[in-house]
Every structure is written in C-alpha cells, then in structure tokens.
Amino acid sequence: MDNLLYSVESIRAIEHAAAAALGEGVLMQRAGQAAARFALDLLGEHRKLPVLLVAGPGNNGGDALETAANLREAGVEALVLYLPGEAAPSAETARALARAQASGVRFIDALPDHAQLGLVVDGLFGIGLARQLQGRHAELALRLDTFGCPVLALDVPSGLDADTGAVVGVNDDRVAVSATHTITFIGDKPGLHTCDGRDHAGIVRVDDLGIERHHFVAPDARLNAVDMFASDLALARRPQNTHKGSFGDVVIVGGAHGMAGAPVLAARAALLAGAGRVFVAALDPGLAYDSVHPELMFRDAVSFDFSGRTVVAGPGMGDAPAARRLLFKVIDSDSPLVLDADALNQLAGDADLQGKLAQRKAPTVLTPHPLEAARLLGVTSAVVQADRVEAARELAGRFDATIVLKGSGTVIAENEANGVAINTTGNPGLATAGTGDVLSGVCGALLTQGWSAGTAALGAVWMHGAAADALVEQGIGPIGLTAGELPGAIRSILNRLVREATVR
Ligand SMILES: NC(=O)C1=CN([C@@H]2O[C@H](COP(=O)(O)OP(=O)(O)OC[C@H]3O[C@@H](n4cnc5c(N)ncnc54)[C@H](OP(=O)(O)O)[C@@H]3O)[C@@H](O)[C@H]2O)[C@@H](O)CC1
Ligand SMILES: Nc1ncnc2c1ncn2[C@@H]1O[C@H](COP(=O)(O)OP(=O)(O)O)[C@@H](O)[C@H]1O
Ligand SMILES: [K+]
User: Fold this and answer.
1) Ligand 2 atom showing the smallest separation from residue 483 Cα
2) Mean predicted lDDT score pLDDT of the chain
3) Does residue 193 line the site of ligand 2, with CB under 6 A?
4) pTM score over 0.80
5) What InterPro entries does the database record attribute to this sequence (predicted)?
6) Which of 45, 160, 422, 427 sits in a 20 to 30 Å window from 369, CA-based?
C-alpha cells in the first residue's frame, strides 16, 4: 500500500467517506496526534527547546492547533502563530483552537527573532491552497527554514500544489515552504515527489489516520518501486546453457558528425545492462571504435539491418534528412524501440513520423526531458513542468507508447488506466550531459532481454537513479558525477536485484 498516490480530489472523497463514518473532528484529532508523534521523534533530545507552529485559516491550521495542544500536553513549549482568515473557521478548527488555548500553548503575533527552536511546524495551507502565497503568507513561507532546526510540513508544504508538485503561482516570486520533513495525511500525494516537490517536502511520512481500506478510492498513480518490475527481474536470472544470442541485440542509431559521445554512452550502458551484442549504427562513417569498450560494434547506419534487434534511436542523431529517413525506417520496423533526444525533436515536427509511430505494434518507449516533451505536445516546457503527470499521460495517450518524462521525480506513463508512476531514486548529480543517453541505453538493454515496455521503463529509470544515489554515497557526486560512471553502477544494481528477486 505504501507506494500509492492520490490526487486531491481522491483524498477529498476518502476524507468525506471516512468523516461520515467517524464523525466530525475525529480525523483532525488523529492528524494532530500523528503530527505530534512525528514532531517528538524529530525533536529527539531537544524536547526542552520550544516548537514554533504556524497555523493558517483552514483545516490545515486546525491540524497545527491540534498538534500544538498535543505537544504542550507532552511537556513541550509550543509557540503558535495563528493567522485566521476573514471567514469563520470550520467547526473542527474552532474546537482545535479552543483546545490549544486551554492547553497552555503560547500564542504569538510574529515570528520570534533569534530564537533557538527545536522544530518549526508548517500548518499554513494544505490541500485547500487556492492561489499563490502573497504578503504575510509568502514572507512566512520564506522564513520558516531560517531557524537552523528541522521544518515539519503538515500534509503538504504550504505553497506547493499537492497534485503537480509545482509551487503555485505564475510569476517568478511564487514561494512555498521548504520543509525537511512532511507528514502527509490519508494517502501520499504525487506533488510531494516530482517537480519542486522533492525540494519542498523533504522526507515524506504517510499517516492514513486509521481510515479503513474500504473508504479508499483507486489510486491515481504510484511511486516507482522494485516490486513494480520484479516479475522481469526474476526472469532475468541466466540459465547455464545460453549464449550471446540469448540476450538480444541493441543497436544505437545516432552519432552524426561531431556527436559521437552520445551514442557511445548509450551503447556502453546497453552493454553493461546485459544486452548480448551492442551495435552503434552511426550516421558519421568516421565513428568506428570505442577504446574503453572494444566490444561495441560500429556499423554504417544507412545500410544496417535492424530486423530482430532492439533499436535506441536519437543519441547524437542530429536533424539532417538522412537522420529523418533512418528514423522513418526504424519506426516503421517491428523492432522494440526507444526514442530519445534528436529522434524526439524530429518526431515533434513531423506528422508522417507521428502517423507511423501510432501504427506500431512492437514495444515503444519515448524518453523526453521537459523541453522535448513540450515540443511533442506543442506547448512550452513551463506548461509541461506545471503538471508533469498530466503531460506524461497526455503523451502516452497521444503516441500510444510508454513515456518517460525525465527530471526530478521522473514520471513514467503507460497508456492504460492508472498506469502512471513517479520515480523516487536519483539526485541532481544526474543533471549533467549524457546521463539521458545512458538511460536510453539501459532501457534498450532491458527491452532486448525481453522486458515489456512498461517494466523496462520502470526498471531502467529506477536503477539509473539508484546508481546515481550509490555513487553520491561513495562521494562521487553530486558535484562532478559523470554520465560515464553510471553504467558500472547500474550493472551492480541490476545483478543485485536479479539475485534478490530469484527464488531458488
Ligand atoms: N477535513 C478533514 O476531514 C481533514 C482535513 N485535514 C487537513 O485539512 C487540510 C485541508 O483543509 P482545508 O480544506 O480547510 O484547506 P487548507 O489547506 O487549510 O486551506 C484553505 C484555507 O485557506 C484559504 N486559502 C487558500 N489558499 C490561500 C492563499 N493562497 N492565501 C490565503 N488564503 C488561502 C482558504 O480560504 P479562501 O480565502 O480561499 O476562501 C481557506 O480558508 C488538509 O490539507 C489537512 O491538513 C486533516 O485534518 C485530515 C482531515
Ligand atoms: N535534478 C535531478 N534529479 C534527478 N534526476 C535528474 C535531475 N536532473 C537530471 N536528472 C536525470 O538525468 C537524466 C538527464 O537526461 P537528459 O536531460 O536527456 O540529458 P542528456 O541529454 O544530457 O543525456 C534524466 O534521466 C533525468 O531524469
Ligand atoms: K502545510
């Protein structure tokens, strides 16, 4: 259950059903108890230090008031900055306010200056956030992380859209609270894990408030996890009586003049992720040899026979007419196909290619970064980033393919109901040239070893991110991590996961 994600609309439906069964105010009380428990964990040995809680006008503020009362009753000094709205609070928030007042929490009018605090709790806005934070709310959001202590957001960091992970607003001065931790209620939410979400939410803990499962609706998405591609991991164990032909061929199509690095990176990644044979079908005939991996075979792209081979098209492909002709040929083939980089840019402007793509029956994975996705959708990258989940869904539907929308919290979308996952591995060390080429090569390698488009995308993205995390753990990055260091780390992870998934 822990990797399920719910939209705000779904959370409201669950909340409605549960509240009708439990009675008014029970969920808020439970939220306040769960948050206080987490706050005490975070305080650890610093229980003598005061906790600052900011409470907004809605029920998120009610949660903060409940939390404050619970902390006070646990002997912690609680300072509450309560900012009521113009409208009267809900009945449960009014009760939480009365409870906080009776419990002896200290109400303050402004943030304390130079105070030593044990924890800051953000209960300004949750899923009821309706517009960009402004004025005092914006000022507060910017200051909550300046006390040198952890910041715990209740439900959602205030200012962040729980569905999309974008900071709400249109202009450059939009702001949201930057929390170190978030306790999110009822179910986990997509916006905590993609776009700006990872920066603002920190470590996410989910508390279902004890709501019985039958009140839950179907999840809207999932967090990518090993169990989502475990079926193919288990099948990847290698029998003894095999040969290189048993594990498929990958051919990287790209490498126009002056762009040799991209296909070589993709090819090395495909090799180390287990493809039996890897070719580079290069547009530039001068590209002939990789001294690091002489196992790679270089061929002329135009005369290459793609049949029976998995194709990764795009790395360093350029936009020359010859590249377009090749692309048409591979899209028209029945080879499993990964389209990346320049292949996606060509596709974006070419209705004939798009028509051919729509007719494909073989597994097809598209791996756009936000700008490539924007070109495919005919919008700006800002529009894509404003709702990454929706953009990936839209592309999956439009091209009838598996979509990997890259970036922090990569979104993997398949053209099926509920077929959206958000990846949790990876870090900004990946924000360096060539890492996307590595991802496309890994995806090709998994496809050619018989994985489905969906599991190949989920597995490749998960391992690619986990490899970057492992390298950072070893001090190799995030600053200065290079794409070329990823394939070796991915190989280790793939072998470990296959070992762990294999039941003997
Ligand atoms: N109900 C339940 O059973 C449970 C609910 N739970 C908790 O409740 C939270 C949802 O509560 P909620 O619906 O009251 O919304 P919330 O996020 O507090 O904000 C709405 C208020 O803010 C205002 N407002 C909005 N944007 C604004 C802005 N930019 N700037 C200024 N004002 C703005 C808006 O007023 P408006 O001005 O838009 O009329 C309204 O007053 C949820 O996240 C969870 O924490 C849990 O206890 C579990 C059980
Ligand atoms: N800040 C980040 N956090 C997590 N992953 C990232 C981040 N920045 C980039 N990545 C990942 O790195 C890869 C970059 O791919 P791409 O943009 O195509 O780069 P290139 O074309 O240079 O290879 C993608 O897999 C993307 O998800
Ligand atoms: K909040």
Assistant:
1) 23
2) 96
3) no
4) yes
5) CARKD, Nnr, Ribokinase-like, YjeF_N_dom, YjeF_N_dom_sf
6) 160
> Is residue 418 scored above 60 in pLDDT?
no
Q: Which residue among 29, 30, 125, 175 is best mutated to probe the pocket of ligand 1, counting the most ligand atoms within 8 A of its Cβ?
A: 125
Residue 468 pLDDT grade (very low, low, confident, very high; cuts 50, 70, 90): very high
Q: Has 208 been labeled as part of a binding site? A: no
Least-confidence region, from 112-121, 366-375, 385-394, 483-492: 112-121
| 125 CA: nearest ligand 1 atom | 17
Contact 31, 23 (CB under 8 A): no
Report CA(342)–ligand 2 centroid distance (Å): 15
Taken in order of first residue, the domains within the chain and their CATH numbers are 4-221 (3.40.50.10260), 226-501 (3.40.1190.20)
- Residue pair 59/28 in contact (Cβ under 8 Å)? The answer is yes
479 is annotated as contributing to ligand binding? no
Q: What is the spatial distance between Cα 464 and Cα 459, in angstroms, rounded to a whole number?
A: 8
Nearest CA to ligand 2 atom 21: 436
Atom of ligand 2 nearest to the CA of 432: 22
Task: Check whether 490 has a pLDDT greater than 90.
Answer: yes
Q: How confident is the model at residue 417 (pLDDT cuts 50, 70, 90)?
A: low
Q: What is the dihedral of CA 445, 448, 454, 455, to 10 degrees?
A: -70
What sign for the dihedral angle of Cα 478, 480, 483, 484?
A: negative
- 385 C-alpha to ligand 1 centroid (Å): 24
Question: Which of 381, 406, 481 most suits a substitution to test ligand 2, by most atoms within 8 Å of the C-beta?
Answer: 406
Strand order, beta sheet including 51-55: 106-108, 78-82, 51-55, 119-123, 151-154, 181-185, 203-207
The size of the chain, in residues, is 504
On the question of pLDDT at 445 being above 90, the answer is: yes
Tell me, in angstroms, the distance from the centre of ligand 1 to residue 80's CA. Answer: 17
Whether 23 is in the pocket of ligand 1, judged by its Cβ within 6 Å, is no
Long-range contacts of 385-393 (CB under 8 A, 24+ apart): 385/166, 385/195, 386/164, 386/166, 387/163, 387/164, 387/166, 388/164, 388/165, 388/194, 388/195, 389/163, 389/164, 389/190, 389/194, 389/221, 389/413, 389/420, 389/422, 390/164, 392/420, 393/420
Closest CA to 163 of 182, 142, 188: 188
